[in-house]
Amino acid sequence: MLENQTNGVTGPDLLEQANGHIRNHDLDSAQRTLEKGLALDFDSADVVTSLKFVNFWRERETQLENIQHAFERGEYYISQWPAFEGFAERIGHDCEPCMFAIRTHVFGRALEEFQLLVQEADSQDFELLMRIGRCHKGLGAYDEAVRYLEAAAAERSDDSEILSELADAYALVNETQAAKAFFREAFFLEPQRVHLELLESQLIRALADKVRELGFSGPALLEWLPVYGVLLGVFTVKRELRSIEYGKLKQGIYALERELREGRDKDRLVEPRLINRYFWLVDHLVGSGEDSAKVDEVLLKLRSVNERIYKQYTN
Prior knowledge:
With 315 residues, the chain is mainly α. The chain has two domains: 5-179, Serine Threonine Protein Phosphatase 5, Tetratricopeptide repeat, CATH 1.25.40; 243-314, no CATH class. It has 15 helices and two strands. It has helices spanning 11-23, 27-40, 45-61, 70-91, 96-115, 126-138, 142-155, 160-172, 176-189, 202-213, 218-231, 243-261, 270-287, 292-305, 307-314; strands spanning 5-6, 9-10. It has a two-stranded antiparallel ribbon. Strand 1 and strand 2 (9-10) form a beta hairpin. Mean pLDDT is 93; it is low at 1-6.
């Protein structure tokens, strides 16, 4: 904490003033206020860190001058958030009040941009609904986030990006069963469309951390995450497949088996995707009361693909 005073204004007062400017989207005033705080105590970690945070976003926002469309401006704010989280982690000082103020500024600005489009766009534009929901989630308005993301999912129920965001919002309002169900669905449909860096719930972040500890990263992390979601008892909520879904699942498994057999798994993504589909097939066969011989046949295939996973799954 800053102990020096100038005209009765203390360092903590200036920090709070700066955070107020940030929340009100006035980064220039925040910078000037923090520089005053720095003059009071050059060694204050809170002031130094806050100033670095503000300067990060002031530099980023110079790029907005070249972005004309509101949708793209909103997307720009959101796209820079993961980079900022990485930047804050490298600084290594926990400055929670400023972090909260920055979050309010960034997601608030993005929300303003997307809301400009609401009246001129189709009210059922699932892309816009999802992004508005994502902004509310970033602002901590989780119930409002759920409302928009449910509306987006109603328009596009097979979009992994939307479903993962909805699952994340459900987790944040403690609707754990719904969260697990929608996460499982999202990672089954198209794992590469899940923006893991924008998900906030401990449910998915803890699982992702465990999978990273196993040595997976990038696209492979997204494919192995649902496999370990099952093995670690996270993706436990299951649903019955419709007949058309069952047919598509079997076709997908056949295609992936052929890719693996022909050695076309250069990116090492086919194996975990196939394993996840075996899990879904076993769940379907067991849930629909099929003969155990059919289940054993799938398990035998799983064992031939990855014996280690087979042992974890069956023990």
